């Protein structure tokens, strides 16, 4: 499903995806500086498991492979280990670009389907913005049950010990199931988020479905 | 008039060897005047003692010296006695450091030391004091061939150093290829934007300099002579010719652009919108400050640069090498477009971006910052589609075939050196016996070896690219700029400075009869005994530097200032009539004969090692510093160059009972390391025939070994000696022991 803003972007940049990335993706202005040495791809612990390691993604951007890049699962796989950033001879903030690309793809409505990192990210966000505090119990259960009830029960049983220990250490409370703790000024927090969203939308110059 | 012997007992020599007995070997067997010992010979006191003897009057005056201490590569400053013939006996690196301690070894170690002393005494007796030839005087004038930026920079540098220069330029203007460019790659930080070429300023400076004379529309009709006394006929296409004399020559003849008509696959010639980099410069210059237009007047909106067009390729008719400047040139040209209008699409299709030199990488980054797109791709073809072009390439990162539209394609084609006639291929003669010359000569040297400088690879006149880049094989003639090797403008200008410095050295050295690189300062020079000469011309052919011409009667005619003193001619001469005063068939022959060869019942073989003094000998020294043990039966004689090895030495050695001979010279071939370029190669060729000698003597072929040894072969060099020891163990002692 692509979005209206996606259509707008396609029209605006007319096949100059590098420019689009430069203007809209977090740290995307660095992509043009990549010299294709391949050090990042060679350094990435996940490199062999990706469809497209960073160097290749950057080349695809120059080759105008917009659809393929934005719907790729690759950047969702990044573990933020920063190996690539530490080694890139050109000093590209590759990790940030990865997250920027993932985020941008999602905003354009092109996120990959059934990508666990993406799913969890959304779950985390939804959980967080409710009260301004993460509700560990709900988040944990949400994660365990994300692949259906039966699977959820199985995973939960397996993680029983972890849950008990967290409770003992007061890192999680069973009472959280009833609603849980939150920030003191919840409406202020929500106003803040709204403002941030507005600013971000203004920056991109269009409304997006980013949440 | 005496030969003085000085035996050092320091550095453990006195502890390891019986020095009393060595003293008597020197005096009784070496037959020198006296032998003094000192426990620290290289100290001021030790050196003063020797100098005092040399300063003495009458019969006590020491006129030749034998220093029995460390290697000739050590303490060279202390034991430098000017012109006084001095032999160095290597007891430290050559004996005690390679021999294990212990009473079971003492006898052979002592014999080794005694032999080296006998050898040193014999050598010094055969040596004479070297004097300058006095053949040429000083000429402060440098001829610079070519008036491009290399030539102009060379002339200006010469003038700044107080010398005179004459620029000989074939065309009717100064500036060369650089004069045809709109701008050049930046020379100064932050290396972000193209800058003015600076050609106009260079021309103005040349014209304003009263030490520089410019000959436009001129070529060289004839060059004769040698450093310090070059005689040149300058021909002019517009007026009368001139005759001039020069001390040295810098050849800065630049390059010819590769002919892009050899690249039909890129539609060059088929479409006017496929151009070379040089042709793009013309379009850019025509555009002035406005947008760059194609031949048909259309403003360029989408330009693709094809890197390595017909270069770094193994295809027939392509260049195998990288021309070194074209990546930066495309970067610069892409900026011509981007700086005038950032919306113009500029794509560089490259295999590797190579931006050598200071600031090259910054310049590359600056282009990326300006949104020049760099795609790693190999272009296969360029198709003409009406008014447009389609570039077909393989994306090397995405590993897939791809296309791109373009309205202008720029080919990064390479450079071909203007080095004149290839004297190695001009040996082909036509039906009338005339030498076929396909390319016009530039220098028109009247040297016997041919009219231009020898080329190294791909037609470039380079010399050793690390160790002695400007030294060509024609002493006093130095090449600079893209004729030497592919390079960009900044490198060409640095090159010009380097070559001029070399030219100045040649002028100064030849003025006082001293050798140029690599035996800089050497006053010895080769001479030949006319009575013995059979006019075989081996010396003239083998001299790597073209130093020897022929006189009217066919005898060799030496040009000392062209000579590098390698001794290759001496090694080549089949009747051994060539010699230097301080280095000759005698000085080495006497050494190998001075060695005491024990009879076969003693089972002590003798292995002669002739080692190049520049690389192999220091490698052995360094192995000794690491205390690498070697056989007590080797006797090493350093030679100026393995090229100076005359087969008579090998025959003499084998005939007098040596069991094996090991020769060590430098790496030969195109990536040679020989200080005399071809010396080692000549020796290898010569020694390939030694097998005949061995078989007539009924000796096993592996008793003689020739090796290429680098100065870094510290572990390998002694192993090669061990190998010969094994050979002797296997084949047995020589039957020629008396
Ligand atoms: S930070 Fe991400 S892209 Fe970079 S090496 Fe680590 S996992 Fe790979
Ligand atoms: S390490 Fe940096 S310059 Fe090299 S390919 Fe990766 S992003 Fe590009
Ligand atoms: S071979 Fe060597 S020593 Fe002989 S003339 Fe040539 S440069 Fe001089």
TrEMBL record, chain A:
<dbReference type="InterPro" id="IPR017896">
    <property type="entry name" value="4Fe4S_Fe-S-bd"/>
</dbReference>
<dbReference type="GO" id="GO:0016491">
    <property type="term" value="F:oxidoreductase activity"/>
</dbReference>
<dbReference type="GO" id="GO:0046872">
    <property type="term" value="F:metal ion binding"/>
</dbReference>
<keyword id="KW-0411">Iron-sulfur</keyword>
<dbReference type="GO" id="GO:0051539">
    <property type="term" value="F:4 iron, 4 sulfur cluster binding"/>
</dbReference>
<keyword id="KW-0004">4Fe-4S</keyword>
<dbReference type="GO" id="GO:0005886">
    <property type="term" value="C:plasma membrane"/>
</dbReference>
<feature type="domain" description="4Fe-4S ferredoxin-type">
    <location>
        <begin position="31"/>
        <end position="92"/>
    </location>
</feature>
<protein>
    <submittedName>
        <fullName>Quinone-modifying oxidoreductase subunit QmoC</fullName>
    </submittedName>
</protein>
<dbReference type="InterPro" id="IPR051460">
    <property type="entry name" value="HdrC_iron-sulfur_subunit"/>
</dbReference>
<keyword id="KW-0560">Oxidoreductase</keyword>
<dbReference type="Pfam" id="PF13183">
    <property type="entry name" value="Fer4_8"/>
</dbReference>
<keyword id="KW-0408">Iron</keyword>
<keyword id="KW-0479">Metal-binding</keyword>
<dbReference type="InterPro" id="IPR009051">
    <property type="entry name" value="Helical_ferredxn"/>
</dbReference>
<dbReference type="InterPro" id="IPR017900">
    <property type="entry name" value="4Fe4S_Fe_S_CS"/>
</dbReference>
TrEMBL record, chain B:
<dbReference type="GO" id="GO:0051539">
    <property type="term" value="F:4 iron, 4 sulfur cluster binding"/>
</dbReference>
<keyword id="KW-0274">FAD</keyword>
<keyword id="KW-0411">Iron-sulfur</keyword>
<keyword id="KW-0408">Iron</keyword>
<feature type="domain" description="4Fe-4S ferredoxin-type">
    <location>
        <begin position="524"/>
        <end position="553"/>
    </location>
</feature>
<dbReference type="InterPro" id="IPR039650">
    <property type="entry name" value="HdrA-like"/>
</dbReference>
<keyword id="KW-0285">Flavoprotein</keyword>
<dbReference type="Pfam" id="PF13450">
    <property type="entry name" value="NAD_binding_8"/>
</dbReference>
<dbReference type="Pfam" id="PF02662">
    <property type="entry name" value="FlpD"/>
</dbReference>
<dbReference type="InterPro" id="IPR003813">
    <property type="entry name" value="MvhD/FlpD"/>
</dbReference>
<comment type="similarity">
    <text>Belongs to the HdrA family.</text>
</comment>
<dbReference type="InterPro" id="IPR017900">
    <property type="entry name" value="4Fe4S_Fe_S_CS"/>
</dbReference>
<dbReference type="InterPro" id="IPR017896">
    <property type="entry name" value="4Fe4S_Fe-S-bd"/>
</dbReference>
<keyword id="KW-0004">4Fe-4S</keyword>
<keyword id="KW-0560">Oxidoreductase</keyword>
<dbReference type="Pfam" id="PF13187">
    <property type="entry name" value="Fer4_9"/>
</dbReference>
<keyword id="KW-0479">Metal-binding</keyword>
<protein>
    <submittedName>
        <fullName>Putative adenylylsulfate reductase-associated electron transfer protein QmoB</fullName>
    </submittedName>
</protein>
<dbReference type="InterPro" id="IPR036188">
    <property type="entry name" value="FAD/NAD-bd_sf"/>
</dbReference>
<feature type="domain" description="4Fe-4S ferredoxin-type">
    <location>
        <begin position="554"/>
        <end position="583"/>
    </location>
</feature>
<dbReference type="GO" id="GO:0016491">
    <property type="term" value="F:oxidoreductase activity"/>
</dbReference>
<dbReference type="GO" id="GO:0046872">
    <property type="term" value="F:metal ion binding"/>
</dbReference>
